[in-house]
Amino acid sequence: MYVTIVEVHVKKEYVSNFIEATRINHLASVKEKGNRRFDVLQMTDEATRFVLYEAFASAEAAAAHKKTEHYLQWRATVSDWMATLRKGTTYNGLFPE
User: Fold this and answer.
1) Range 2-85 has CATH code 3.40.50.300
2) Phi and psi (nearest 5°) for 4?
3) 2: CB partners within 8 A, 6+ apart
4) pLDDT tens-digit profile of 30-83?
5) Residue pair 24/74 in contact by the 8 Å Cβ criterion
6) Where are the domains positioned within the chain?
7) How far apart are CA 95 and CA 97, in angstroms?
8) For 47, phi and psi rounded to 5 degrees?
9) Which is the most buried residue in 27, 52, 63, 91, by most CB within 10 A?
C-alpha cells in the first residue's frame, strides 16, 4: 500500500471553507478504484491544522489521483487558504495488508 500523510495549516478565516472543499474531495477520492483510505483529521487543540491520510493500492494509483478533476479542483480552491505550504510525506503501508 502507498500512503501519503499530508500536513496542512490553514488560515483561520478559511477553516470552514477548507473543511467543505476537502469533504467534496474526500467523497470523490474514496470512489477511486485504487483508493484504500482517505481520512481527513483536524487537530483538537489547534483547529487550523489538518492531516490527510491517503492510502492507495500503489504509487501509480496515487499518481492517478493527482490527475483527477476533483483533486485538481480541490488544489486550486484551497491553495490561497494555506498559512504555509502543505507537506506530504510518503510511506509504505505494511498493515493492514
Assistant:
1) no
2) -125, 130
3) 55, 56, 57, 58, 59, 61, 62, 90, 91, 92, 93
4) 999 999 999 999 999 999 999 999 999 999 999 999 999 999 999 999 999 999
5) yes
6) 2-85
7) 5
8) -65, -10
9) 52
